[in-house]
Design brief:
The structure is a homodimer of 284-residue chains. Chain A is an alpha+beta fold. Chain A has helices at 64-72, 97-110, 119-132, 139-145, 182-187, 189-208, 212-225, 231-242, and strands at 2-18, 27-46, 52-56, 59-60, 80-87, 148-153, 161-165, 171-178, 247-249, 254-259, 271-275, 282-283. In chain A, helix 1 runs parallel beside helix 2, helix 3 (119-132) runs antiparallel to helix 4 (139-145) and helix 6 packs antiparallel against helix 7. Chain A starts with a strand and ends with a strand. The A-B interface holds A 107, 110-111, 116-122, 147, 150, 158, 161, 163-166, 168, 208-211, 278-279, 282-283 and B 107, 110-111, 113, 116-122, 147, 150, 158, 161, 163-166, 168, 208-211, 278-279, 282-283.
Chain lengths: 284, 284
């Protein structure tokens, strides 16, 4: 039996981490943008064999969030699974690929008849996979919802609280300059204190006037004020602004994203693009 | 400026009403199915003129839920509005058209720049429109989410709690036998007591084993045990079952819906059909 599910890429603009011993309630508040680009999980279940083979874009890959999902969901332990993930965006550059891979896998595995979990219940497992592995704190909540998502109360889908900002499916472009390890940033306790204060301030401002351009400008200020921007990221953001556009940094990747076709980004490397995806993760 | 938004039709299978003086928290718990069929609202705003002209499928129509939305949302009072609604399903037959019209209108009106409300905030207004006019108690919560939706905590989107049941976009068919006034049923206090007990019982069972076929059988038992089925509805449900299918009654309309192509319904009248719509209300 083969089932395919999709979860969108999610670019966080600003965030503030929320600590809780229970990973279901832990995570982050903040705001991020889902894309039509994302991760597709094609899961084949066989009654013979055991364990899971995970491939990302055709290559075997150790993805801790996907392993966590496979080990946590009922009904997957006594059958062999082949999980073929296709990602439109790179891993480690701030697109929430770890969370999207976990969420798409969880949704695909769950359509196996008789498991009897709701979509929120399986999304909880994907959220915990992301949080426990310190690969993402709020991506799954955004990806489950779709669109431009404000995360007001941290936690897994159905537990945390989100609000969707009305938004056209306009084009978003990006250039990836380097990888950032989310867990290394989270482990820097002193810097995180400052990040959390700035993230809460941006959230408050966003809730007063929700809109995509306001999201971009709050994200930009957050990126600079937290000191998370690298010199390369700062250059690329300023190049977009010099051409009259809006850009910021994908949290957490050494990646710049911009509204529109991103022509001003081309001097910095290969430009990727996608429309904003207003639909949350779903079974195909 | 013209903006178009869509909200899916929503067929409630079983429900239990929840009373609250605050319409935001009032509504119903239960379970219902969203369709790809629904209501499209095309809203044209002009800076001259005032008031709102509401048309349903080309004809001027007094729709209290839409009027409520227009009068409640900020920024609509000082401009002229033309609201053209196109419904794929009939009003008054248990498809949640009152709620869908209110929700699609609210989303379309809200894209007017500068209003600055999230999608949940405008959906709250549509939910209140439905509840206050006693045209529906939980349709908007289902329609905002899309798919097969269990409403666990009553109330408007962002306030009530829902869970989505994983479901293919299979075909659903229906035959409409007559109209039912939702408010007349709600006003029958004694019968509502019994309905509410049976609705809570079905909800509990659904949560233990969420799935589309379980939804159909719980809905069917609810329809008969509450006594809401008319003789015509009972005949049509039994005809579908005799052909090996599953059917129940759309709450609250004198309408039978069935999984599949509904060939067994054809002897009872013109058969409509749609796939299950897994996407919630959205701007087009």
């Amino acid at each position: 039996m083969t089932v395919t599910a999709f979860a969108p890429a999610h670019i966080t603009g600003f965030f503030s981490t929320i600590f809780d011993h229970d990973p279901v309630k832990a995570g982050s508040v903040g705001c991020g943008l889902c894309l039509e680009a994302g991760v597709m999980a094609r899961v084949t279940t066989s009654t013979t064999g055991s364990g899971a083979l995970i491939r990302l874009n055709g290559e075997p890959k150790d993805l801790p969030t996907v392993t966590y999902v496979v080990e946590s969901l009922p009904g997957t332990r006594h059958s062999g699974l082949v999980i073929d993930l296709t990602a439109d965006v790179p891993l480690g550059y701030g697109f929430g690929v770890s969370g999207a891979a976990a969420l798409a896998t969880a949704l695909a595995v769950n359509t196996d008849p008789g498991q009897g979990l709701t979509m929120e219940q399986v999304a909880v497992v994907a959220h915990c996979a992301d949080v426990v592995n310190r690969t993402g704190m709020g991506d799954v909540a955004g990806q489950f919802t779709g669109g431009l998502v404000i995360r007001i109360v941290a936690g897994a889908p159905g537990v945390g609280v989100v609000e969707k900002v009305p938004v056209d499916n306009m084009e978003v472009s990006w250039v990836c300059l380097g990888e950032i390890s989310t867990s290394l940033v989270l482990d820097d306790k002193k810097n995180m204190e400052r990040i959390n204060i700035l993230g809460q301030r941006a959230l408050k401002a966003m809730l007063k006037r929700p809109g995509v351009e306001h999201f971009m400008s709050l994200s930009r200020d957050f990126a600079f004020e937290t000191g998370l921007v690298s010199p390369g990221v700062a250059d690329a953001i300023e190049a977009v602004e010099a051409s009259g556009g809006m850009a910021s940094m994908a949290m957490l990747g050494d990646t710049v994203f911009a509204l529109g076709d991103g022509s001003a980004l081309m001097e910095f490397g290969p430009v990727g693009s996608s429309r904003i995806g207003t639909t949350g993760a779903h079974i195909l």
